[in-house]
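I can't quite decide. Please look over this sequence plus structure tokens:

:::
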Amino acid sequence: MTKLTITPAQRKSLKAKAHDLNPVVMIGNAGLSPSVIKEAQLALKSHELIKIRVLGDDRELRAEMYDKLCDALHAAPVQHIGKLLVVWRPKPTAAEDEAFARSAKKTKKKIQAPRTALKAVRKTTAKKSVAPKTVGKGSKAPVRESKIGWTSAGYTSRKLSAPAPNPKRRKVRQSSIKKKLLG
């Protein structure tokens, strides 16, 4: 297991890209555990350039972790500043990704009912017509609910009794001859 090597020009461009990134993996006081390596592996698979934050204070220990992590992930070390580590690995090719997806996919196919059975179920559960509610005891005006759910008689009767607004009529300018003729 060896880490990737990159040219100084590649390293420079990767440092520029990594500047705006936030750390996606954190290494705590337990150190470099298998779960940390697994999370870094998943992050590299989807992002290919990641930042890792190390919470320990020992500088030599951080440098050792950086080397071990790059070896374990088959990644290239890009930058190590203080407690931040930047790692890069190119995304896997389509063939490698497909092989991984096939081995990881172990789900059963769902059995779906035939379409004719679904249509029969939909017909039986169709909405039935409901008689409208009325306001008060003897009133025949239907009750309508407002947007906020008020159904009081006063609110609905006021709303129902209000006349519908008339559409706007255009004002037509008449000539003086038409005015004289119309009277």
Notes: The CA atoms of residues 18 and 101 lie 28 Å apart. The chain is about 40% helix and 10% strand. The beta strands are 23-27, 49-54, 76-81, 84-88.
